[in-house]
Amino acid sequence: MRRVRRADLARDADLVAPFLLNKLLVSGECVGRIVEVEAYTSIDPASHSFRGMTNRNAVMFGPAGHLYVYFTYGMHHCANVVTGGVGDGQAVLLRAVEPLAGLDVMVARRGRSRNIADGPGKLCQAFAIDLSVNDADLCRPGPIGLFDDGVAPPAVPAASLRIGISVGVDTPWRWTVAGST
DNA sequence: AGAGTGATGGGCT
DNA sequence: GCCCATCACTCTT
Predict the structure, then answer these.
(1) Residue A32: which residues within 8 A CB-CB, separation 6 or more?
(2) What Å value separates CA A95 and C1' B2?
(3) Total count of domains within chain A
(4) Is the dihedral of CA A115, A116, A121, A123 positive or negative?
(5) Are A14 and A172 in contact (CB under 8 A)?
(6) In chain A, beta strands by DSSP E
(7) pLDDT, average across residues A84-107
(8) Pair A36, A131: CB distance under 8 Å
């Protein structure tokens, strides 16, 4: 099991997103297989980086391979993998993982035994991801990391297509592992 | 299965 | 003051 290389993440988010499918998110004893992601770039009006750098999204403009965590709806955290080059403002939102290890810990944190990590807020709660790990380097030893167990991403990832060519798109790019939900 | 909705707080115009 | 890259619960088919 090898750590994901930074060079693989230092590409555009719409390329990195499908690459991240089937990669492993590891935090302590908890391991999850990434099964749903969404790409966000600075030209997407739905992206936090669209209106430039602020205190909240600064990590998004930093080096690839770091974790961008934000707090939303007054109660949820969301986890993103920063991609592209410094200054780009690109990231891939982790929307769902399939729990592989540390299930008991995740169940305790979630307070239920089903739907443990099948949503961006849920997976953060299951993996105890909050602002304290914002900017963590996923490509170096630390509280949380990204690993490759050799299982290739789906040859043809299920993807929702962007509608139209204008900037005013409502649906960001989303990729899933077929049959994961 | 799908639609509607309250919780709850930080970020930004 | 309004807007969320959400969740879980309730009520309706």
Answers:
(1) A24, A25, A97, A98, A99, A100, A117, A123, A126, A127
(2) 21
(3) 1
(4) negative
(5) no
(6) 2-3, 24-27, 30-40, 67-72, 76-83, 90-101, 145-148, 158-160, 173-176
(7) 98
(8) no
Residues pairing with A76 in the sheet: A72
CATH of the domain at A105: 3.10.300.10
pTM over the 0.90 mark = yes
Q: Does at least one atom of strand C sit less than 7 Å from the CB of A23?
A: no
Quote the percentage of chain A above a pLDDT of 70: 92
**Residue range A8-39, pLDDT digits in tens:** 999 999 999 999 999 999 999 999 999 999 99
Q: Would you say residue A125 lies in a domain?
A: yes
Residue A124 lies in a domain: yes
- Closest nucleotide to A44, Cα to C1': C5
Distance A71 CA to B6 C1' (A): 19
Q: Average the pLDDT over A74-95 and give the result.
A: 98
Task: Report the amino acid identity of residue A23.
Answer: K
Are A33 and A166 spatial neighbours (Cβ–Cβ below 8 Å)? no
A181: in domain:
no
Instruction: Identify the domain containing residue A17 by its residue range.
Output: 2-176
Does residue A50 sit within a domain? yes
| The two three-digit tokens of residue A38, written as one number | 């969404």
